[in-house]
Amino acid sequence: MKRVLLTGASGFIGSHCIAPLRRRGYEVVAICRRPPPAAVEGLRWVRADLLDRDARRRLLDSERPSHLLHLAWYVEPGAMISHKDNLAWTAASIDLLAQFHELGGERVVMGGSCYEYDWRYGYCSEELTPCRPDTLYGAAKHGLAQTLLGYCTTAGLSGAWARMFFLYGPNENPKRLVPSVILSLLRGEEAKSSHGMQVRDYMHVQDVADGTVALLDSAAQGAFNIASGRAVTIRHIVERLGEITGRADLLRIGAYPARANDAPLVVGDPAMALQAFGWQSAIGLDEGLRTTVEWWRARLAAGELK
Protein backbone atom coordinates (compact mmCIF):
# COMPACT_ATOMS: atom_id res chain seq x y z
CA MET A 1 0.00 0.00 0.00
CA LYS A 2 1.10 3.57 -0.68
CA ARG A 3 1.99 5.33 2.56
CA VAL A 4 1.78 9.12 2.64
CA LEU A 5 3.19 11.40 5.29
CA LEU A 6 0.72 14.28 5.51
CA THR A 7 2.08 17.34 7.31
CA GLY A 8 -0.31 20.03 8.51
CA ALA A 9 -2.92 17.27 8.76
CA SER A 10 -5.00 19.02 11.43
CA GLY A 11 -4.93 22.34 9.58
CA PHE A 12 -7.34 24.00 7.18
CA ILE A 13 -6.21 22.32 3.97
CA GLY A 14 -4.60 19.21 5.43
CA SER A 15 -7.72 18.10 7.30
CA HIS A 16 -9.62 18.09 3.99
CA CYS A 17 -6.94 16.00 2.27
CA ILE A 18 -7.51 12.97 4.50
CA ALA A 19 -10.71 11.70 2.84
CA PRO A 20 -9.47 11.97 -0.78
CA LEU A 21 -6.19 10.31 0.19
CA ARG A 22 -8.07 7.39 1.73
CA ARG A 23 -10.33 7.10 -1.34
CA ARG A 24 -7.22 6.78 -3.50
CA GLY A 25 -5.88 3.95 -1.39
CA TYR A 26 -3.25 5.70 0.71
CA GLU A 27 -2.28 4.70 4.21
CA VAL A 28 -2.18 8.11 5.87
CA VAL A 29 0.33 9.05 8.55
CA ALA A 30 -1.06 12.39 9.74
CA ILE A 31 1.36 14.75 11.46
CA CYS A 32 0.22 17.27 14.03
CA ARG A 33 2.13 19.47 16.47
CA ARG A 34 -0.48 19.62 19.22
CA PRO A 35 -2.41 16.71 20.80
CA PRO A 36 -4.04 14.69 18.00
CA PRO A 37 -7.64 15.48 17.01
CA ALA A 38 -10.41 12.90 17.22
CA ALA A 39 -9.72 9.50 15.70
CA VAL A 40 -10.43 9.12 12.00
CA GLU A 41 -10.76 5.75 10.34
CA GLY A 42 -7.94 4.85 7.99
CA LEU A 43 -5.20 7.04 9.36
CA ARG A 44 -2.75 7.24 12.22
CA TRP A 45 -1.99 10.47 14.04
CA VAL A 46 1.62 11.14 14.96
CA ARG A 47 2.60 14.13 17.07
CA ALA A 48 5.86 15.74 15.95
CA ASP A 49 7.57 19.13 15.79
CA LEU A 50 8.71 19.46 12.18
CA LEU A 51 10.90 22.45 13.04
CA ASP A 52 13.09 20.08 15.08
CA ARG A 53 15.63 18.37 12.79
CA ASP A 54 16.09 15.34 15.03
CA ALA A 55 12.32 14.91 15.30
CA ARG A 56 12.01 15.01 11.50
CA ARG A 57 14.68 12.34 11.14
CA ARG A 58 13.09 10.05 13.74
CA LEU A 59 9.69 10.48 12.10
CA LEU A 60 10.88 9.60 8.60
CA ASP A 61 13.08 6.78 9.83
CA SER A 62 10.22 5.12 11.70
CA GLU A 63 7.47 5.66 9.11
CA ARG A 64 9.38 5.25 5.80
CA PRO A 65 6.63 6.85 3.66
CA SER A 66 6.54 6.33 -0.10
CA HIS A 67 4.83 9.72 -0.57
CA LEU A 68 5.10 13.11 1.13
CA LEU A 69 2.36 15.74 1.05
CA HIS A 70 3.85 18.71 2.87
CA LEU A 71 1.37 21.42 3.84
CA ALA A 72 2.59 22.53 7.27
CA TRP A 73 3.59 26.20 7.51
CA TYR A 74 3.13 29.31 9.65
CA VAL A 75 -0.24 30.78 8.59
CA GLU A 76 -1.46 33.06 11.39
CA PRO A 77 -3.81 35.68 9.85
CA GLY A 78 -2.34 39.16 9.85
CA ALA A 79 1.16 37.93 10.67
CA MET A 80 2.09 35.25 8.13
CA ILE A 81 3.00 37.64 5.31
CA SER A 82 6.03 39.04 7.09
CA HIS A 83 6.74 36.69 10.00
CA LYS A 84 10.28 35.39 10.51
CA ASP A 85 8.95 31.82 10.83
CA ASN A 86 8.69 31.79 7.04
CA LEU A 87 12.47 31.38 7.10
CA ALA A 88 12.33 28.57 9.65
CA TRP A 89 9.75 26.69 7.61
CA THR A 90 11.73 27.11 4.41
CA ALA A 91 14.82 25.58 6.01
CA ALA A 92 12.86 22.79 7.69
CA SER A 93 11.05 21.95 4.45
CA ILE A 94 14.28 21.67 2.47
CA ASP A 95 15.75 19.34 5.08
CA LEU A 96 12.52 17.30 5.18
CA LEU A 97 12.74 16.89 1.41
CA ALA A 98 16.34 15.69 1.50
CA GLN A 99 15.72 13.25 4.35
CA PHE A 100 12.56 11.91 2.72
CA HIS A 101 14.48 11.10 -0.45
CA GLU A 102 17.47 9.70 1.42
CA LEU A 103 15.22 7.21 3.22
CA GLY A 104 13.60 5.90 0.05
CA GLY A 105 10.74 8.33 -0.59
CA GLU A 106 9.30 8.13 -4.11
CA ARG A 107 7.07 11.17 -4.70
CA VAL A 108 6.58 14.53 -3.03
CA VAL A 109 4.11 17.40 -3.41
CA MET A 110 4.45 20.62 -1.41
CA GLY A 111 1.97 23.43 -0.95
CA GLY A 112 2.66 26.76 -2.60
CA SER A 113 0.75 30.01 -2.97
CA CYS A 114 -0.47 32.56 -5.49
CA TYR A 115 1.57 35.04 -3.42
CA GLU A 116 4.56 33.84 -5.44
CA TYR A 117 3.28 35.59 -8.58
CA ASP A 118 3.72 39.20 -9.65
CA TRP A 119 0.18 40.40 -8.91
CA ARG A 120 0.53 43.36 -11.27
CA TYR A 121 -0.26 40.90 -14.09
CA GLY A 122 -3.64 39.96 -12.60
CA TYR A 123 -4.14 36.68 -14.46
CA CYS A 124 -1.65 34.13 -13.18
CA SER A 125 -0.35 31.47 -15.58
CA GLU A 126 2.40 29.01 -14.71
CA GLU A 127 3.99 29.43 -18.13
CA LEU A 128 3.49 33.15 -18.74
CA THR A 129 3.25 35.09 -15.47
CA PRO A 130 6.54 35.91 -13.72
CA CYS A 131 7.02 35.01 -10.08
CA ARG A 132 8.12 38.21 -8.34
CA PRO A 133 6.76 37.98 -4.78
CA ASP A 134 6.62 41.22 -2.81
CA THR A 135 6.17 39.62 0.62
CA LEU A 136 8.42 37.44 2.76
CA TYR A 137 5.78 34.71 2.72
CA GLY A 138 5.62 34.70 -1.08
CA ALA A 139 9.41 34.83 -1.39
CA ALA A 140 9.84 31.92 1.05
CA LYS A 141 7.29 29.83 -0.81
CA HIS A 142 8.80 30.58 -4.20
CA GLY A 143 12.31 29.89 -2.96
CA LEU A 144 11.15 26.52 -1.65
CA ALA A 145 9.42 25.78 -4.97
CA GLN A 146 12.61 26.39 -6.91
CA THR A 147 14.61 24.28 -4.48
CA LEU A 148 12.09 21.43 -4.59
CA LEU A 149 11.86 21.31 -8.37
CA GLY A 150 15.60 21.72 -8.84
CA TYR A 151 16.33 18.96 -6.34
CA CYS A 152 13.80 16.61 -7.96
CA THR A 153 15.36 17.14 -11.38
CA THR A 154 18.90 16.60 -10.11
CA ALA A 155 18.15 13.67 -7.80
CA GLY A 156 15.62 11.88 -9.99
CA LEU A 157 12.83 12.26 -7.42
CA SER A 158 9.24 12.62 -8.62
CA GLY A 159 7.87 15.90 -7.33
CA ALA A 160 5.44 18.75 -7.91
CA TRP A 161 4.42 22.10 -6.45
CA ALA A 162 0.74 22.94 -5.77
CA ARG A 163 0.26 26.69 -6.11
CA MET A 164 -2.99 27.47 -4.28
CA PHE A 165 -5.11 30.60 -4.56
CA PHE A 166 -7.84 31.93 -2.22
CA LEU A 167 -9.77 29.55 0.01
CA TYR A 168 -12.80 29.38 2.27
CA GLY A 169 -14.71 26.55 3.93
CA PRO A 170 -15.05 24.48 7.13
CA ASN A 171 -12.26 24.56 9.69
CA GLU A 172 -10.89 27.92 8.52
CA ASN A 173 -9.39 30.31 11.04
CA PRO A 174 -12.34 32.44 12.28
CA LYS A 175 -10.27 35.60 11.81
CA ARG A 176 -10.27 35.26 8.02
CA LEU A 177 -12.70 37.03 5.69
CA VAL A 178 -15.42 34.47 5.01
CA PRO A 179 -15.79 33.01 8.52
CA SER A 180 -15.52 36.43 10.17
CA VAL A 181 -18.42 37.71 8.06
CA ILE A 182 -20.46 34.55 8.59
CA LEU A 183 -19.99 34.52 12.36
CA SER A 184 -20.83 38.21 12.70
CA LEU A 185 -24.05 37.73 10.74
CA LEU A 186 -25.08 34.56 12.59
CA ARG A 187 -24.51 36.34 15.92
CA GLY A 188 -26.58 39.32 14.84
CA GLU A 189 -23.59 41.64 14.72
CA GLU A 190 -22.41 44.11 12.09
CA ALA A 191 -20.16 42.50 9.46
CA LYS A 192 -17.60 45.04 8.33
CA SER A 193 -15.43 44.84 5.21
CA SER A 194 -13.59 47.03 2.72
CA HIS A 195 -15.22 48.21 -0.52
CA GLY A 196 -14.76 44.65 -1.80
CA MET A 197 -14.12 45.51 -5.44
CA GLN A 198 -10.95 43.40 -5.46
CA VAL A 199 -11.35 40.47 -7.88
CA ARG A 200 -10.07 37.12 -6.65
CA ASP A 201 -10.08 33.40 -7.44
CA TYR A 202 -11.89 31.94 -4.41
CA MET A 203 -12.37 28.18 -3.99
CA HIS A 204 -13.92 25.88 -1.43
CA VAL A 205 -11.15 24.20 0.56
CA GLN A 206 -12.39 20.71 -0.36
CA ASP A 207 -11.88 21.60 -4.02
CA VAL A 208 -8.32 22.66 -3.25
CA ALA A 209 -7.65 19.51 -1.21
CA ASP A 210 -9.04 17.29 -3.98
CA GLY A 211 -6.84 19.01 -6.55
CA THR A 212 -3.74 18.75 -4.39
CA VAL A 213 -4.31 15.03 -3.73
CA ALA A 214 -4.98 14.45 -7.44
CA LEU A 215 -1.60 16.04 -8.17
CA LEU A 216 0.12 13.82 -5.61
CA ASP A 217 -1.50 10.71 -7.08
CA SER A 218 -0.32 11.57 -10.59
CA ALA A 219 3.06 11.50 -12.26
CA ALA A 220 2.93 15.21 -13.15
CA GLN A 221 6.06 17.18 -12.33
CA GLY A 222 6.57 20.92 -12.02
CA ALA A 223 4.51 23.79 -10.59
CA PHE A 224 0.73 23.77 -11.06
CA ASN A 225 -1.99 26.23 -10.14
CA ILE A 226 -4.72 24.81 -7.94
CA ALA A 227 -7.22 27.39 -9.12
CA SER A 228 -10.73 27.67 -10.52
CA GLY A 229 -10.14 30.40 -13.10
CA ARG A 230 -13.39 32.05 -11.92
CA ALA A 231 -13.17 35.77 -11.17
CA VAL A 232 -15.36 37.04 -8.34
CA THR A 233 -15.33 40.25 -6.35
CA ILE A 234 -14.96 40.10 -2.60
CA ARG A 235 -18.03 42.32 -2.44
CA HIS A 236 -20.09 39.66 -4.23
CA ILE A 237 -18.98 37.02 -1.72
CA VAL A 238 -19.88 39.23 1.23
CA GLU A 239 -23.27 40.13 -0.29
CA ARG A 240 -24.07 36.45 -0.95
CA LEU A 241 -23.27 35.63 2.65
CA GLY A 242 -25.71 38.33 3.71
CA GLU A 243 -28.40 36.80 1.48
CA ILE A 244 -27.72 33.20 2.56
CA THR A 245 -27.88 34.07 6.26
CA GLY A 246 -30.84 36.40 5.79
CA ARG A 247 -28.95 39.22 7.50
CA ALA A 248 -27.89 41.48 4.64
CA ASP A 249 -29.07 44.37 6.80
CA LEU A 250 -25.98 43.87 8.99
CA LEU A 251 -23.43 44.23 6.18
CA ARG A 252 -21.20 47.28 6.42
CA ILE A 253 -19.34 47.18 3.14
CA GLY A 254 -16.74 49.94 2.93
CA ALA A 255 -16.39 50.27 6.71
CA TYR A 256 -12.73 49.34 6.50
CA PRO A 257 -10.24 51.03 4.17
CA ALA A 258 -8.70 48.86 1.48
CA ARG A 259 -4.95 48.42 1.55
CA ALA A 260 -3.23 51.05 -0.58
CA ASN A 261 -1.26 48.49 -2.58
CA ASP A 262 -4.01 45.87 -2.86
CA ALA A 263 -4.02 44.29 -6.33
CA PRO A 264 -7.32 44.79 -8.18
CA LEU A 265 -7.23 41.35 -9.86
CA VAL A 266 -5.68 37.97 -8.91
CA VAL A 267 -7.06 34.95 -10.77
CA GLY A 268 -5.36 31.65 -11.58
CA ASP A 269 -5.18 29.85 -14.92
CA PRO A 270 -6.42 26.26 -14.29
CA ALA A 271 -5.59 24.84 -17.73
CA MET A 272 -2.32 23.08 -16.90
CA ALA A 273 -3.84 21.12 -14.03
CA LEU A 274 -6.61 19.80 -16.26
CA GLN A 275 -4.16 18.87 -18.99
CA ALA A 276 -1.47 17.31 -16.78
CA PHE A 277 -3.49 15.39 -14.19
CA GLY A 278 -7.13 15.73 -15.15
CA TRP A 279 -8.35 17.93 -12.32
CA GLN A 280 -10.63 20.93 -12.36
CA SER A 281 -12.68 22.79 -9.77
CA ALA A 282 -16.01 21.06 -9.06
CA ILE A 283 -17.66 23.09 -6.27
CA GLY A 284 -19.50 26.22 -7.35
CA LEU A 285 -19.27 29.39 -5.29
CA ASP A 286 -22.91 29.44 -4.21
CA GLU A 287 -22.91 25.78 -3.18
CA GLY A 288 -19.66 26.22 -1.29
CA LEU A 289 -20.80 29.33 0.56
CA ARG A 290 -24.09 27.69 1.58
CA THR A 291 -22.44 24.57 2.99
CA THR A 292 -19.85 26.72 4.76
CA VAL A 293 -22.54 28.86 6.42
CA GLU A 294 -24.29 25.70 7.63
CA TRP A 295 -21.02 24.31 9.02
CA TRP A 296 -20.41 27.47 11.08
CA ARG A 297 -24.08 27.57 12.13
CA ALA A 298 -23.75 24.03 13.48
CA ARG A 299 -20.56 24.91 15.39
CA LEU A 300 -22.31 27.86 17.04
CA ALA A 301 -25.37 25.76 17.92
CA ALA A 302 -23.13 23.12 19.50
CA GLY A 303 -21.41 25.74 21.66
CA GLU A 304 -18.00 25.01 20.10
CA LEU A 305 -17.19 28.69 19.56
CA LYS A 306 -16.78 31.47 22.06
Describe this structure in words.
With 306 residues, the protein is α/β, with parallel strands linked by helices. The chain has two domains: 186 residues, NAD(P)-binding Rossmann-like Domain (Rossmann fold, 3-Layer(aba) Sandwich); 104 residues, UDP-galactose 4-epimerase, domain 1 (Alpha-Beta Complex), CATH 3.90.25.10. 38% of the residues lie in helices and 21% in strands. The chain has nine helices and 15 strands. The strands form four sheets. The protein has a seven-stranded parallel sheet, sandwiched between helices. Strands 6-15-10-13 form a four-stranded mixed sheet. The protein has a two-stranded parallel sheet with strand order 8-11. Helix 3 links the parallel strand 4 and strand 5. Helix 1 crosses helix 6, helix 5 packs parallel to helix 7 and helix 7 crosses helix 9. It is globular, with a radius of gyration of 19 Å. The termini are far apart.
